Amino acid sequence: MALCAKKRPPEEERRARANDREYNEKFQYASNCIKTSKYNILTFLPVNLFEQFQEVANTYFLFLLILQLIPQISSLSWFTTIVPLVLVLTITAVKDATDDYFRHKSDNQVNNRQSQVLINGTLQQEQWMNVCVGDIIKLENNQFVAADLLLLSSSEPHGLCYIETAELDGETNMKVRQAIPVTSELGDISKLAKFDGEVICEPPNNKLDKFSGTLYWKENKFPLSNQNMLLRGCVLRNTEWCFGLVIFAGPDTKLMQNSGRTKFKRTSIDRLMNTLVLWIFGFLACMGVILAIGNAIWEHEVGTHFQVYLPWDEAVDSAFFSGFLSFWSYIIILNTVVPISLYVSVEVIRLGHSYFINWDKKMFCMKKRTPAEARTTTLNEELGQVEYIFSDKTGTLTQNIMVFNKCSINGHSYGDVFDVLGQKAELGERPEPIDFSFNPLADKKFLFWDPSLLESVKIGNPHTHEFFRLLSLCHTVMSEEKNEGELYYKAQSPDEGALVTAARNFGFVFRSRTPKTITVHEMGTAITYQLLAILDFNNIRKRMSVIVRNPEGKIRLYCKGADTILLDRLHHSNQELLNTTTDHLNEYAGEGLRTLVLAYKDLDEEYYEEWAERRLRASLAQDSREDRLASVYEEVESDMMLLGATAIEDKLQQGVPETIALLTLANIKIWVLTGDKQETAVNIGYSCKMLTDDMTEVFIVTGHTVLEVREELRSAGGRREALPVRSPHSCPERPKAREKMMDSSRTVGNGFTYQEKLCSSRLTSVLEAVAGEYALVINGHSLAHALEADMELEFLETACACKAVICCRVTPLQKAQVVELVKKYKKAVTLAIGDGANDVSMIKTAHIGVGISGQEGIQAVLASDYSFSQFKFLQRLLLVHGRWSYLRMCKFLCYFFYKNFAFTMVHFWFGFFCGFSAQTVYDQYFITLYNIVYTSLPVLAMGVFDQDVPEQRSMEYPKLYEPGQLNLLFNKREFFICIAQGIYTSVLMFFIPYGVFAEATRDDGTQLADYQSFAVTVATSLVIVVSMQIGLDTGYWTAINHFFIWGSLAVYFAILFAMHSKGLFDMFPNQFRFVGNAQNTLAQPTVWLTIVLTTVVCIMPVVAFRFLKLNLKPDLSDTVRYTQLVRKKQKAQHRCMRRVGRTGSRRSGYAFSHQEGFGELIMSGKNMRLSSLALSSFTARSSSSWIESLRRKKSDSASSPSGGADKPLKG
């Protein structure tokens, strides 16, 4: 294992020579052994303990333990600290050891896998851990790839092989890789044994979709790309065998380079708790100083007179030194104000909350058989405090299942169906869809309603034919024909699959492809095109092109891409057609459709040959290869002729409008960050009710310069005419946005109130208190300026004053920057939700990241904190699980600090009556067991199971979510109230028994007051009082709560009587000296009266305060509970009576896959074997009336939740 961890100098480039281990070993490359485990048998104990004592709390308690071992200081036995400390360390160590055991098991399983390695001209079985860089290995079908390999040859034609990359990117569809032609013939072992090529490439990195290198062999050099690589973690599929050259091994492989840890996230409660614990430490030190000063004064003034009876220890030579020792003694005794069990209990509660999320059947997607998953246990309570949600659009709000809906060809729009009056027919009023029976290869699932498009195809319209010819040629779709006429397409994006399927149904059937050809059946006639080049898609180009030669020898470039890119690359002669097509694009986008522009260009032979030569030189460049290729592509993709445009429908997911309406009513602001165009995103905003016609204003920001963006941020209505917003507030003079907001807020009058957030952020703005509802829409190029340092505050201030914000055409980096901006200036919890690889940065940046397991693999899920399959589950995650988790954690912390201050402060008061001698009130066993046994389980039960209102009410009244956003249930104020209550309880707990015992006598007339009887009385009173208190705090009683609370009381009395029994005294006479003390003390009526009096005086003020608060100033949850009781009574009365009686809109953008296409690979050859596409369909349900009722409920915040309740709702 030492080799696995061996450190090597950083690499600038990787050199690997085939079949030459001696040459490769001088570079000290990592072996193929992996090690994800942290410990072994020898290092586990020291390393694990070292890691655990990195925690401040553990170090603090270790320090206390050391103090307790000093006889002159400690008045407590060492086991009072070591027992809970060892228990915590042991639980954590067992958990770490278990996790590491499974890591060891996984490592050994992987490292010991067998691989066939070519050594000395023969194939030999070797363990994976012994494979080295430069080795040639043989893989067989269904085997895992052992290391990052350069594919040399395979059993398939043209050196192809098929792989599944689920372990790398979560995508289960097969991908194809191909060997470069010069090595594809090296299928014979004797030839491979003589192969001595050297690869010079980039150093190890974590970029899964990129590889740049060059193979040097036989005095020639050959460019290498990612399409020639097989990465570790892939599985070989549908390929009998292949050979590969190891380039990266073990920790250098891209799989292992991507296995770094995600940034650790802490909740706001964690950060607050750390601050409070530091305050408590300071308070503890202050108490220790007070008592130490008291000890020094007492020893100086009083203790010196008792030296004969109470001599100082040998080490003590003065009253001052006695006080110094007393300080440390009291630090030990009073340390229980911060018990170590607090941290363990918090983790147990969070674990329980995570299991509740995982087990929630209402968040289980039956269609995909996917449950919700809490991928972290540290953020549950923060789910109840979210104020900002940042959402992707495609695949998150929408289904990402694309349907070809409309198109524009040579200025004519197709797709609409008109009735006899010339009006557009709605979907439900349309006739039967087009009959494609003339085409035996048509996809029976494809539906289209406009017959005029099919007529145009049948009559041979050249523009229509060229349109569908482009769709059938310009793509990277893989085709498989299992049976005659049964075609299966596998596309890398749903958009592309929809377009090729549309061309297929209209008679232009993409049938098959070879490395250099594409075969299309055009109206029943098979035509083979020579594929000369594929200019592949990426996120910068936002377009793809193919260059083909038709059977007549004519060379033509076909291009499709986003309109913002393609329209600028058209020939000037297209202006009239461009205007018409642009109108169609606006119309399509106004209906929420995703648009794409198609164009072509004829190339002459001489120009193409010259261009192809430049392209080859760019592909062989060692430096800036991608930039040089992009420049060459840019040159040829110019002066193109416009063909038309396509429009694809991407429907909303089920339940999205209801979810957004609920979350909005919960005072959660939703920002949509999407790569689509402004018009598409805005239209989706209207569809899902983020934007409404009732809004006061929708601000549009599309400026290209800093000055334009700043002006538009301040302007209202600059481009509002493009939006379907019919607001009476529009003004021709275009006033400043802020001024307009402020003007409208001034007209509200005294009836408008705004509750300022308790924990105000650094950005304090009156804009957030304005009346009316506003929305902001901003484009990516404008956002780039808005995020600059001198304008980010202005942008944020305006955006946060809006009810909804939509950012369009944004890059993945910009998504993360927007989230970071809100985190930086707003003290608010942020949540990011997305489904694709382009959402990963946003998900990792936000306080909480949620991944949707949708159509784009599981990259977002792997980077997330929580995951599920549909956006609608977000409402339940936040409004039910999040709110309950926050409520439970806050109640747990309040009670925990209360009970420990009530327990510990009794020692402080006793110090004034025992000469500040650091003597304890309680028995040392009681001190040890108080937090571990007597009070641990009841508070855990409350922290795991408690709820203020049922889940149905949590969803019915979203305003119940606001206390978490305002941090009302646990903050510094609530902490001090708990501490004050604990101190108040400790005062009564000490002085009431002290006063009673001063004069009380037993039944036989003897003095009742003695130290042990007093200790038993105070301890019993304490356990009963804190048990009564948690009974009052518990809002939802279960059998487990009853069992833990009353069981803990029973266990206390059982242990108490056992420790004072004769049996234990006989076994341990030095430890349990006070035989029968508990029985004798608790047999006295005076003692029980004292306990009852103490309990009543401690509890009654709490009961009285809560009664008055419930009647005079109830919370919303109190009102909802009251309403529920009223409803139950009304239902009961009703049952009794019945028994007696019976006795719209904008322009959208086409979105390609967010990964590089297969273009370069297709050019080198492939014959992909595919299975059919299984696309899930979702049905959206109408919910407008329900949403409107929710909005009415929001506006009527002062009314009762039901007609039967007569108390006002408090938001």
| CATH architectural label of the domain at 403-418 and 433-651 | 3-Layer(aba) Sandwich
- Tally of individual helices: 41
Total strand segments: 33
CATH class (first level) name of the domain at 403-418 and 433-651: Alpha Beta
Strand order across the biggest sheet?
Answer: 14-33-32-31-15-27-30-29-28
**Shape summary:** elongated
Membrane topology: Multi-pass membrane protein
Cofactor: Mg(2+)
EC number: 7.6.2.1
GO molecular function: ATP binding; ATP hydrolysis activity; magnesium ion binding; phosphatidylcholine flippase activity
Offer a concise description of the structure:
It is a multi-pass membrane protein. This is Phospholipid-transporting ATPase. The protein is α+β, with helices and mostly antiparallel strands and 1211 residues long.
Explain what you see.
This protein has 1211 residues and is of the alpha+beta class. Among the domains are: 41-110; 131-259, Distorted Sandwich (Calcium-transporting ATPase, cytoplasmic transduction domain A), CATH 2.70.150.10; 363-395 and 653-717 and 773-878, HAD superfamily/HAD-like (Rossmann fold), CATH 3.40.50.1000; 403-418 and 433-651, Calcium-transporting ATPase, cytoplasmic domain N (3-Layer(aba) Sandwich), CATH 3.40.1110. Helices cover 44% and strands 16% of the residues. It contains 41 helices and 33 strands. The strands form six sheets. It has a nine-stranded mixed β-sheet with strand order 14-33-32-31-15-27-30-29-28, sandwiched between helices. The chain has a nine-stranded antiparallel β-sheet with strand order 17-16-26-25-24-23-22-21-20, with helices on both faces. Strand 2 and strand 3 form a beta hairpin. Helix 28 runs antiparallel to helix 34 (1011-1033). The radius of gyration is 37 Å and the shape is elongated. Mean pLDDT is 81; it is low at 1-6, 716-736, 745-766, 1140-1155, 1164-1191 and 1197-1211.
